[in-house]
Batch of 2 targets.
Target 1
Amino acid sequence: MSQDSPVRMDNNQVLIFDTTLRDGEQSPGCSMTTQEKLSMAHALEDLGVDILEAGFAMASEGDFAAIATITQAIRGPRITSLARARSEDIVMAARSLEHADRARIHVFLASSDLHLEYKLKMSREQALDQTAECVRQARALCDDVEFSPEDATRSNRDFLVDMVRVAIQAGATTINMPDTVGYSTPEEYAQMFREVRQRVPAVDAEGIVLSSHCHDDLGLAVANSLAAVAAGARQVECAVNGIGERAGNAALEEVAAAIYVRPDYYGVTTGLHIDKLYPTSQTLGQIITFAPSPNKAIVGANAFAHESGIHQHGMLANPLCYEIMTPASVGVPATTLVLGKHSGRAALRHRLEQLGFTLSREELQQTYYRFVALADRKKNVYDQDLVGLLSQQIRDRRPMSMAEVD
Ligand code: KIV
Ligand code: ZN
């Protein structure tokens, strides 16, 4: 592992820390082989993520092997290995990163009384000592150390501030404050970042990067992550397609697209090639063999599909009427006007023209009646159905009335 300097960046740049291969992989049905993780790591490198959390070295031999393999093949992003605040985990994380060009050890220890009392059976004082000791150990092995007070959002605020202070004094270069159980709200999460920045002057004075890590139990992971950015977080931890423990992590593509579409509001940038968002999502879907839900923002099958006649008409007149980004900008091949019972004549004519049929007004009207009758019986009308309708119409060679199609 090379000893390089920790991440430093412009104040308006947000680092994208991808945890698809670690937290993402922890969700049911999402486990990946080393080869699969390597393919995904290449896709993430192409996408331009800044930090790639490759796994939890101590969790299994497979995880260790995957991290080690990724460090040898991937050169763009900084590679991170997760470790509990235990000496043996930290040693294992450092070993897994031995061949990394740029490495980070990510140490975590719970900060909430609930976790300390029931899970770790540890007092607050012990937790502070362990934080100092483990961050120091990690820092001796790697120049870039991230510390996460797990369950930060349900922790006593004074104690959280103490833990952050201790971690920075011991050498942490990034402080990640996870909403481990997806409990927080955007206002509350943002306030936590503002308060920590204000009460721990070393954060700004020493250029410590504050990071968000949100779970989606209340469907707020992306909103919370963006609220943290607005409050000064300069790293967002997220996963492709939003996969992750339970309801998942903040979806990388949603965070990235929000920052891209609303520079006026967030005033920050990422280093991502956002036209790779959709291909990266597809790669993950193929590897884990399940696609995001069709209505998933940015990368779902319906994210750029329009069915209602009013929307289709507006889209044909000017796509800005119903789309806030072009599909091409996020790598989606094209907008789809889905033909169904809500579609209008404008969309039907457009599709027929794309298929090479130019119809007179009268012909279009006849085809439209037949099309609506068919769409009432069938969920979607495909190109072959349209060609079928036209051939039948040509065969019939006689005008139709509504009564006929009804
Ligand atoms: O959700 C969480 O708290 C985590 C930590 C390990 C960062 O995944
Ligand atoms: Zn997590």
Target 2
Amino acid sequence: MEQLLYERLCGTAGTENVLVNEPMKKHTTFRIGGPADYFVLPHTKEELAEIIHICKEEHVPWYILGNGSNLLVSDQGVPGVVIQLYKNFSRITVEGDRITAQAGAANSVIARRALESGLSGYEFAAGIPGTVGGAVVMNAGAYGGEMKDILLEVTVLDENGGFQFLKKEELELGYRTSIILKKGYVVIEAVFGLTYGHEEEIRGRMDELKNRRVEKQPLEYPSAGSTFKRPQGYFAGKLIMDAGLRGFSVGGAKVSEKHCGFVINAGEATAEDVVKLIREVQRIVFEKSGVHLETEIKFLGNFKTPGSTSVRSNP
Ligand code: FAD
């Protein structure tokens, strides 16, 4: 059966785009994660739809990956097929004040294209180290901006293998959530509506935000960004710091001393180290402040630590 699956995947995406036992630590910003049984890189939406169709027919779980910048992958790896929509799937077109980007386009590249085209609105996302797919599905945001502010429409692949156009109003975009996430759709392409601006001002805003990130965030270490969602009325980082957990570590995983809202891979951290650290932080913060910290990062694969959610891969 496995040989048949492999042959079918290669027949669709091309042998060079189907990797076997691919270490996920190469594809996550945490630099953590065991192997994916199969790692597939489609070039077109038709290839993508066919790969998912094959997974369903062969009863193999599948998971969509962007740049892996919001993800903790288990040390045991990922059973089934990881489908990465990234560099092979990253066309960007600019028409007037609209930018259309395929799901795998990087936010940094779109921000640069917007700047070159004298378009304002994407500056807030320039430093979010993920793809359009990852940003839309999570309604990524930073420094007062969020995807919701600039998205016009999205093309998705639905659960029946059909392509749908969804207008912004249909996306139910909220704090780090969307209907796409709830329904398990796959983002294919997004259209952003920006405004004409002055190149110097756009560049200035991007530089300002970049400097704020460099100053405040532990960018010198692998991480998945803010580990926890912002609890209403609080800041996760402050709660963690006030609970005395600055620099707290489990194995190679550590609460960043620079920004307590970030769990970092301070050196050879395992996924289990990160999960144990997260559970301890949640327990201690709850004990000290009564606030439950919900994780923002996604988990993929099976984890041994009790209470860990083993995460959605699609049946
Ligand atoms: P991945 O991590 O690959 O995937 C995240 C989730 O999206 C997964 O559930 C995956 O299945 C799903 N997904 C990915 N692509 C698709 C698709 N095409 N269709 C359907 N589902 C898809 N986030 C912020 O919001 N604001 C920040 O300021 C910010 N700063 C960060 C700073 C650092 C240093 C780091 C490491 C991370 C930061 N993040 C931030 C987190 C992360 O970059 C974002 O959540 C980003 O949008 C994730 O995109 P990705 O392509 O890496 O997604």
